[in-house]
Specification:
The protein has about 240 residues and is of the alpha/beta class. Helix content is about 40%, strand content about 15%. The chain has helices at about 15-25, 45-55, 70-80, 100-110, 130-150, 165-170, 180-190, 215-230; strands at about 1-10, 30-35, 60, 85-90, 115-120, 160-165, 195-200.
Length: about 240
């Protein structure tokens, strides 16, 4: 069985793609990368192909169109599972998820089933954020925790390491969310299925270059989606 695969969705990340791939390669030699590019108009996919041509630990999945972050991750997870990786990680391509913390996620996965890179546990921080953004982010996590009855501090983060057994158990085919609610839904499903979740601290800066993909529609999906999630039950659970 192969060790670990980072699923890295991209859409218009031309300024970041080569640097983030290089940083992941240097972070830990146990890591392979699967770039999932949603037909980026800026040529991100072509740059990823060129990187993969000279680095055997990198592969690229080209998708025909942009269908949301969740759909991109699900496509990548399916390939990572079929390729027999023991651990499957996810992260953003804009350096908001620090590549140097990837070894910490791998280490925590020795004991935990799902490891979250967390902004909201001791040692975590969002040093570049303005007050309004901090309030919205912390408020969103608190809202989701309250509605879903979870103790996880950072429910909306997308820097994660799954044991393959988690992804196999939580019925990925039935995942409803497409945007940032996807992150909440996967963690909720893992907890409800009885898997052990651990949060490790990360410092989460603003993206280096480019524009955030967050929109009002994505935010509203997350707000509404947590109520729909309450009706989900893992197969075999009480």
């Amino acid at each position: 069985m192969r060790e670990a695969c980072v699923v890295l969705p991209t859409y218009d990340e031309r300024e970041n793609i080569e640097a983030i791939l290089d940083a992941i390669m240097r972070a830990d030699d146990r890591l392979d990368v699967l770039v999932v590019d949603d037909n980026s108009p800026d040529g991100t996919g072509r740059l990823a192909d060129a990187f993969a041509a000279r680095e055997p630990r990198v592969r690229v999945l080209h998708r025909e169109r942009k269908e949301g972050l969740g759909r991109a991750y699900l496509a990548g997870f399916a390939i990572a599972l079929s390729d027999s990786y023991r651990l499957v990680l996810e992260m953003d391509a804009d350096f908001s998820h620090p590549p140097q913390r990837l070894p910490a996620l791998l280490e925590a996965a020795r004991d935990a089933d799902l490891v979250l890179g967390s902004r909201y546990v001791p040692g975590g921080a969002t040093p570049d954020w303005k007050t309004g953004r901090k309030i919205i982010s912390r408020g969103g996590s608190l809202y989701a925790r309250t509605v879903l009855g979870l103790g996880v501090r950072d429910l909306t983060g997308g820097f994660k390491c799954f044991r393959r057994e988690v992804l196999e158990r939580i019925d990925l085919a039935s995942v409803r969310s497409r945007g940032y609610a996807f992150q909440i839904e996967l963690t909720y499903r893992a907890v409800r299925a009885g898997f052990r979740v651990e949060e490790v601290p990360i410092v989460f800066p603003d993206r280096r270059v480019g524009r955030s993909k967050m929109s009002r529609a994505i935010f509203l999906e997350a707000v509404r989606g947590v109520w729909a999630m309450r009706g989900w039950r893992p197969s075999g659970a009480a």
